[in-house]
């Protein structure tokens, strides 16, 4: 028991050091540029200077003083970030050195430390087929270390996934606009697949994503393992669905089987991306066998330019 605790604390500390360094070196200023405050507060009126916007002239003060004055504003900066992490059984999978759950912990840590550097609060929701574990938003290093620890070691009660239920919980507890970072492999439902977004009746998942994005600033992080999209040629293999327990045998020596497997997953990912694009929801794909910090930095840069 003691060894397990020591190993867990060591892993949390390693993630803290690694992600803090990444935030300092690669993401400095990017978070602030991407996630704006709730609005602008009037701070003071000052005398007009060449180059000031004519639209910012405070005509009341100008009339009273006889000199042109402009309104000066400051950003109402403080924000709240809710990190929502999928802990369903499929997250335990990883064909390389790290499982999807470990990658999720690194993403959560990077986002949390980025928020902390901007003096923003950070909270956590861990979910499976229900929202199982909620940590209210707070500040401070110890608070963030607790979030990382819980993403890594919390023992979920369920194996399945219900993204809609998790987002509904976030929408009910977060009364003011927040940043919602949803981290998942988006393998949803009893068959392990996202519902088809082209169906006439929009799925509950995409409805929930759309509603959340309207109320908050939603960003999705999709964790993808290469073995879930492309089958290696290994002969007959047995696959078990982590969430349903269903077992399927596949002959990976067959090029037709490998092609069909790849096409099914490519179609699922394409439909998912199209559905998010329709709702104007930002998506970053994170692959378990590749570093995510450079794609995250470029993602932030693109988002900042767009805004």
CATH superfamily of the domain at 77-226 and 280-306: von Willebrand factor, type A domain
Counting DSSP E segments of at least 2 residues, the number of strands comes to 10
Q: Compute the number of helices.
A: 9
Uncertain runs are 189-198
Tell me, rounded to a whole number, the average pLDDT: 80
Question: What is the CATH-assigned architecture of the domain at 77-226 and 280-306?
Answer: 3-Layer(aba) Sandwich
Shape descriptor: elongated
Estimate the helix proportion, in percent. Answer: 40-55%
Distance between the terminal alpha carbons, to the nearest Å? Answer: 49 Å
> Can you summarize the main beta sheet?
6 strands, mixed
- Rg over CA atoms, rounded to whole Å, is 23 Å
Instruction: Please identify the top-level CATH class of the domain at 77-226 and 280-306.
Output: Alpha Beta
What name does the CATH topology of the domain at 77-226 and 280-306 carry?
Rossmann fold
Report the portion of residues in β strands: 15-25%
Strand order of the largest sheet: 5-4-3-6-7-10
Classification by helices and strands? alpha/beta
N-to-C series of helices and strands: HHEHEEHEEHHEHEEEHEH
């Amino acid at each position: 028991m003691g060894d397990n605790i020591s190993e867990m604390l060591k892993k949390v500390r390693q993630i803290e050091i690694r992600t803090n360094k990444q935030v300092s070196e690669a993401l400095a200023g990017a978070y602030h540029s991407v996630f704006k405050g709730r609005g602008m507060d009037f701070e003071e009126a000052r005398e007009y200077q060449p180059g000031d916007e004519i639209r910012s002239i405070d005509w009341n003060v100008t009339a009273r003083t006889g000199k042109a004055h402009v309104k000066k504003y400051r950003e109402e900066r403080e924000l709240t970030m809710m990190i929502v992490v999928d802990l369903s059984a499929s997250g335990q999978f990883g064909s390389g050195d790290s499982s999807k759950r470990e990658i999720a912990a690194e993403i959560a840590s990077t986002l949390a430390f980025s928020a902390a550097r901007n003096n923003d609060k950070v909270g956590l929701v861990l979910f499976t087929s229900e929202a199982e574990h909620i940590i209210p938003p707070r500040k401070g290093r110890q608070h963030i270390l607790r979030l990382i620890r819980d993403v890594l070691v919390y023992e979920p009660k369920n194996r399945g996934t219900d993204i809609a239920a998790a987002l509904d919980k976030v929408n009910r507890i977060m009364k003011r606009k927040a940043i919602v970072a949803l981290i998942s492999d988006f393998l949803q439902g009893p068959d392990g697949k996202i519902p088809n977004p082209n169906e006439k009746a929009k799925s509950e998942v995409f409805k929930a994503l759309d509603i959340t994005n309207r109320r908050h600033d939603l960003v999705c992080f999709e964790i993808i393992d290469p073995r879930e999209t492309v089958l290696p040629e290994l002969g007959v293999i047995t696959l078990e669905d982590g969430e349903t327990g269903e077992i399927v045998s596949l002959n990976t020596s067959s090029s037709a089987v490998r092609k069909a497997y790849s096409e099914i997953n490519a179609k699922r990912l394409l439909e998912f991306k199209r559905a998010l694009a329709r709702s104007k929801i930002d998506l970053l794909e994170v692959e378990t066998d590749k570093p995510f910090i450079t794609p995250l930095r470029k993602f932030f840069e693109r988002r900042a330019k767009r805004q």
